[in-house]
UniProtKB/TrEMBL annotation:
Name the UniProt record assigns to this protein: MBOAT family O-acyltransferase
Keyword list, A-Z: Acyltransferase, Cell membrane, Membrane, Transferase, Transmembrane, Transmembrane helix
Species per Swiss-Prot/TrEMBL record: Paenibacillus hodogayensis
Keyword match DNA damage: no
Compartment(s): Cell membrane
Similarity-based family: Belongs to the membrane-bound acyltransferase family.
InterPro entries tied to this protein: Ac/AlaTfrase_AlgI/DltB, AlgI, MB_O-acyltransferase, MBOAT_fam
Transmembrane domains' residue ranges: 6-23, 35-58, 70-89, 110-132, 144-164, 228-255, 309-340, 360-380, 401-424, 444-464
Principal subcellular localisation of the protein: membrane
Amino acid sequence: MLFHTPEFIALMLVSLALYYAFPRWRVPVLTVANMIFYVVAGVGNLLLFLAMTAFTYFCSKALQGPRGRFFLWFSIVVNVANLLFFKYTTFLIRSIENTFSVQLLTQDSFMLKIVLPIGISFYTFQMIAYLVDVYKKRWEPAHSLLRFWVFISFFAHLVAGPIMRGKEFMPQIDNLTKIRFSAGNFRLGAFFLSLGIFKKVVLADYITPHVDSFFANTAGLSGSEGWVAAYLFAFQIFFDFSAYSEMALGIAYFFGMELAVNFRTPYLSQNPTEFWRRWHITLSNWIKDYIYIPLGGSRKGEVRQYTNLFIAMTISGIWHGASWTFVAWGMFYGALATIHKIYIMLKEKLGLQSLDKSRIYQGIAIIVFFHITCIAWVLFRVNGLREALSLIGRMLSPSAFNPAHFAGLHFFLFIVALLFALHIGEYFLHRNRSELGVWWHRYFPAPVRAVLYTAIAAILILYLKGEQNTFIYFQF
């Protein structure tokens, strides 16, 4: 069920009415609402999700007992096996077929009929984090299965994150009955929900057909066209994914809850380390806390640190999808992060740390790294590793930067420039949100604000009457 559909809006409004009318019944209300939200993906998917939730919950109850270590690994292995089976089995079998020139799957094979359950990557990682945190006594196990279900399945973050931790979200679930209606929370909720809808239906969905048109014939793209296609896809996936995350924030605020921020204008990053602190932040933190640090982090020397970093980023790529292009995407960022660590070390040895304070250096670094990010997005978007590498090769050829080869592409370059300007504007909007809010209420009386809100709502509703495109990250 998409956030920007009438069906979801109806579900949310009914849930809100019951939620505030019957405070003592908030856990059951959200329990049922979450089931209704997810059952749209299929009854089988819901039953699987319920089974994994119950399994994880009961295992977590034994984590602080005498056999805690066994139950920790048993529950993690089962969760990972569930993800591997649905997401990677066919990919692994196809890889074996291609490597050894054998046929293991036929058109009638059962494996080819398996459908990836929506949100399985997100709820699996959330369950693993919860298990580890309970085992290490960072958080107590949930008081009831229903509370744990609401923690895992809250419809605002279920399908595409943010990935919430026990210490961040369980206290809010435990205190649901104490939450009171707040006009301030509803204003914040309306702001983030409107911002997300605008990003999705006005920006991302506008860019989508142009991106699809370019990548429909990847082999026929010139290097210059490849850059334009990569620019457009960079903004399509950002506006699409950040839209979902911000709509999730807004929905949570309506219910008096707060989710983690997942994006902080990532294309203004100067290096890969900063990028992953601003892009899909909750996944980045998960990878750091549950893979990079357990592998040894930076505690066992530089070579081991670089190796751990490379492995962690490669796993991040694999998490995104069952394809060698995603593996390569993760390895690419692993290599970038390693090179950046070495670059920092060399700057320190040469006494060049002051470069970072130069506005000119910062501007150049942002532009250069944005283009590196676009190269990575080719791996993410193109189907087939050979095709992706071939396009990247054309993009890096000298002819790709010939101004004459951009003839006929000026309209798209203008769109890209406009989108980047909006990205910069979003940075200042979030940075000065409090001050802008005070200014807005001081200089615009309530009737004027009401008219503007109504106009914005009307415009968004007109867009919603068209075909709703699914969110890109639903496939992960």
